[in-house]
DUF8119 domain-containing protein (Halogeometricum pallidum JCM 14848), 74 residues
Amino acid sequence: MNSSSGPVDTLREHGSGMLADLTFAIGWVVAVSLFFEFVQGPQWAYYLFMVAGVAAYFGFFWSLDVAREQRKRS
């Protein structure tokens, strides 16, 4: 039997983080898609906004970590 953890163990260990990642990704894609449905922008700008979601993801969660650290200090 393999000693590595299975998918259930991974979900137990990282479940809330994975849920936050999924929620952010779905929210970003929906927001960008709705925005570009409304403004009917060029296709290259749509893809640029989708790629910008990677930077937005890291910036958002980095700012949450900074806020949590500041909250612990005060």
Observations:
- The mean pLDDT is 85.
